[in-house]
Amino acid sequence: MADVKVPVLGESITEATLGEWLKNPGDPVKLDEPIASLETDKVSVEVPSPVAGVMGDQLVKVGDTVAVGAVIATVGDGGGAAVSPSPTPAPAAAEPAPAPAPAAAPAPAASDAAAALSPSVRRAVLETGVDPSTVQGTGKDGRLTKDDVVAAAAAKPAAAPAAAPAPAAAPASAGGRKEERVRMTRLRQTVAKRLKEAQNTAAMLTTFNDVDMTEVIAARTKYKDLFEKKHGVRLGFMGFFVKAAVQALRDIPSVNASIDGEEIVYHDYADISVAVSAPQGLVVPVIRDAQDLSVAGIEKTIGDFGKRAKEGTLKMEEMKGGTFTISNGGVFGSLMSTPIINPPQSAVLGLHRIEDRPVVRDGQVVVRPMMYLALSYDHRLIDGREAVTFLVALKNAIEDPTRLLIDL
Q: Is 304 one of the catalytic residues?
């Protein structure tokens, strides 16, 4: 019998929350096979089995807080341990007893399956009413994700026309009002604390501009096939914006700086934090030394982050640091927002949806694909003139991508 302990989670992280069990008691496990998933302040961490054998007792429940080094489960020897629970009750119960035993076995299996759902998936199941046993999971090892449940719920109305009797059951609960209390995930708790800390500490202000996306869209349309064929990754807009931001940060270094006590720390490098979607919420991995990367290198890095964020395999060190953040709310349809800075950073750029709007060009009203840009910044360090100059430099580079090539 071997103890399964919470592994070292990273610098300054001493505890985590048990997000889900990936193995149930009695399941065979291999050496280093993940048996549980922990939610830390930033990412999910899988707990591997220290030995090969059979999953034993689960000593903590989903949602419990566990410290580094704590024992959360046991793994028994695989040499026949899986069948030993069944023969033990059989001799004690004579001949008729074995019949009830198989009948009772399915019930625990169902409850274990429900318990294995992550908190976000369980909440989605409760909100949508989807039966998780009828949904095919697309997550790692076939696990169910929140997106799977949402997709199943969206597809449900199409198959529901024949279910006319269903409204008859509604009056029974129509008069009642329900509430549900769900424990905040560790990630959400940390996000809440850090965002409030930013509001309490920084003198935040947001300035706006808009950008004509005509030239970037034309360049992307013209070269996207060749780009993907050569580099093995799709050409998106983020590559252009990261490249333009790096150039503007070099010209306006205070936007890339931070406050440390009574000192200002200027960085001669650009570590760009990019917000990507994960099942448990938005996470912000960092593109290290973005000033040294090509557009292809940037797109490859972002694509890798997005893939591993959905799989829950981003590493803790990939979430640390960052000198400037870019958040693209446009992928969710946002028209305009005031993003909140991520301390100790001093600024964050918000991108929004592209939509056709009438603008004046050379005295004529024309329709162009426009996007609003928002720069939230710490006014203690960055003056309004510098914030506006940064946005104008970014706007000029996007509206004339040739500037990125000739370093203007």
A: no
